[in-house]
TrEMBL record, chain A:
GO terms for cellular component: plasma membrane. Pfam families: BPD_transp_1. This is NitT/TauT family transport system permease protein. Gene3D superfamilies: MetI-like. It comes from Granulicella aggregans. It is found in: Cell membrane.
TrEMBL record, chain B:
Residues 11-239 form the ABC transporter domain. Transmembrane segments: none annotated. InterPro entries: AAA+_ATPase, ABC_transporter-like_ATP-bd, ABC_transporter-like_CS, ABC_transporter_ATP-bind, P-loop_NTPase. Keywords: ATP-binding, Nucleotide-binding, Transport. This is NitT/TauT family transport system ATP-binding protein. It comes from the Bacteria. Pfam families: ABC_tran. GO terms for molecular function: ATP binding; ATP hydrolysis activity.
């Protein structure tokens, strides 16, 4: 009931904003290519939605593929980092480097080396998503109560048993923190990649490419539609990750309290 | 001499010394034998190496010199007959009570159906059947500790090592768990080595109390507790019990006082 009211309130506010927006454009007689009214944006969406949907799905595919591969690689690298403090000391600075190098400066290089296309965009997304997953997973794998490790040792547990029955489940909440951070920047990564990757060719591209094309053609209403689509994609990623997190953690992790007996 | 007359002690410690690389000696020249089915408590001021001694017996920390044998085996080889109960309940939060208790059997590779049977048995024994499918975060501190005990008993240990397991519990819960522990011991007959800060708890549970003196840790007093079994709530109000508590407290105080003096001399 409460969520329903929250949603209703949000919708009323949204309707208000749209009305004011439409009113301002109408009042000052702004040209659609300078500042389009909501109705202009809606018309642009209606006229070009197959194209918009194609761009959206391309970007979604690149962002999802980049995020997923970063998850696999990030957890793998974190597993190596978790083996010894020595390994961490050696390689951790490079993880920070990965995080601090501006992707916008590296993207053109990658496009130059492997050529434009979905693969290049995915690779750029992968790079930007990797560091948060490595950092959070490593933390989860190593920050384990010494007594728990001793408990496993008392039962003559093998290295593999300690990894799969103790370290991995213990790291799961941290892995999700990493994915949550990376899911937000995955969409940014994909769009950044597309800005560079799609520019050399006229035709179909992801949202990043379409934004550049629309801006060059001053198709401002469609540009607005693309911005909306990109935001929607970011939202979708965030909610999917939140849903998965809830599914895997709500029974036992402190973050979910609604089912407490006490 | 027949084989029957050779009694292998449950735990045999000979000149055990533990020191760290920095030169600090935690335990110095500890020698003692613990017979099967004894319940031995170790008390002493902080820094006397009580927990360290327990870790040595568990083989979780390497000994610097001397030997420790558990049922004639090295600590590392004796783990199959030893269970360790830690200061905190050390439960895995992602596992239910049942799944936590089964952990030891699972790690030792017992078949699934036998595992389930054993766990049901232990659940019944410690009175946790009604929360078998709850997660640890849904349980009180006392319940969590019961799960921890159940997990330790599931593997049918012959030796139980307990490292201040009830320190965080309120007094009433602690008393009740103490009584349950004695009931389980009478039933299963393990040998216990129990580290605690509480003199009353040590007297209630033990057949023997070791008072350790600090800097470096060594056995200052070795006192047999002759209170008859079974012990229960009433035991705590008997004159004999109260007299023993006073006696042990005095022994502990003498050890603590000398350590304060020693400390004062070392750091004027």
């Amino acid at each position: 009931m409460k969520t329903l009211r929250t949603i209703a309130q949000a919708l009323i506010i949204l309707a208000g904003i749209l009305l004011v927006w439409q009113g301002i454009v109408w009042l000052f007689n702004l040209k659609p290519y300078i500042f389009p009214a909501p109705l202009d944006v809606l018309k642009a969406i209606e006229a070009r939605y197959p194209e918009l949907l194609a761009s959206l799905s391309l970007s979604a595919a690149a962002a999802a593929a980049g995020l997923f591969t970063a998850l696999i690689a990030g957890v793998g690298i974190a597993l190596i980092f978790a083996q010894s403090p020595w390994v961490r000391k050696m390689f951790y600075p490079y993880t920070i480097l990965l995080q601090t190098v501006p992707i916008i400066a590296v993207a053109p290089l990658i496009i130059m080396w492997i050529g434009p296309g979905l693969f290049a965009v995915t690779l750029i997304t992968f790079i930007i998503c990797l560091a948060p997953i490595i950092a959070n997973t490593t933390l989860g794998l190593i920050s384990i109560d010494r007594n728990l490790v001793d408990l496993f040792l008392m039962h003559n547990a093998s290295r593999g048993q300690i990894l799969f029955k103790l370290r991995m489940p213990h790291a799961l909440p941290s892995i999700f923190t990493g994915i949550r951070i990376s899911s937000g920047i995955a969409v940014i990564g994909a769009l950044t990649g597309e800005l560079f990757a799609g520019s050399s060719r006229v035709g179909q591209g992801g949202i990043g490419y379409a934004i550049q094309y629309a801006s060059a053609q001053t198709e401002t209403p469609y540009l607005f539609a693309l911005v909306l689509a990109a935001s929607a994609l970011g939202f979708a990623f965030f909610f999917i990750v939140m849903g998965l997190e809830w599914y895997f953690l709500h029974e036992w992790h402190e973050s979910a309290r609604s089912t407490d007996v006490e | 001499m027949t084989t029957e007359t050779i009694i292998v002690p449950a735990i045999s410690i000979a000149s055990a010394t533990k020191s760290y690389g920095t030169g600090t000696t935690i335990l110095k020249d500890i020698s003692l034998n613990i017979a099967k089915k004894e319940f031995v408590s170790i008390i002493g001021p902080s820094g006397c190496g009580k927990s360290t001694l327990l870790k040595l017996v568990a083989g979780l920390s390497p000994i610097t010199s001397g030997t420790i044998a558990v049922d004639g085996m090295t600590p590392a080889n004796a783990r199959e007959i030893v269970s360790f109960i830690f200061q905190d309940a050390t439960l895995l939060p992602w596992r239910t009570v049942r799944q936590n208790i089964v952990l030891g059997l699972e790690l030792e590779g017992m078949a699934r159906d036998r595992r389930t049977e054993k766990v049901n048995e232990v659940l019944h024994l410690v009175g946790l059947t009604h929360v078998a499918d709850s997660y640890p975060r849904q349980l009180s501190g006392g319940m969590k500790m019961r799960v921890s005990i159940a997990r330790a008993l599931a593997t049918r240990p012959q030796v139980l090592l307990l490292d201040e397991p009830f320190a965080a519990l309120d007094e009433m819960t602690r008393d009740r768990i103490n009584e349950d522990l004695l009931r389980l011991r009478a039933d299963q007959g393990w040998t216990s080595l129990f580290v605690t800060h509480s003199v009353a708890e040590a007297v209630f549970l033990s057949t023997r109390i070791l008072v350790l003196a600090p800097h470096p840790g060594r056995v200052a007093h070795d006192i047999a507790i002759d209170l008859p079994f079974p012990r229960n709530e009433e035991t705590r109000s008997t004159p004999a019990y109260e007299q023993t508590v006073i006696e042990i407290s005095r022994a502990l105080r003498s050890v603590s006082a000398s350590s304060v003096n020693a400390g004062g001399a070392a750091h004027p």
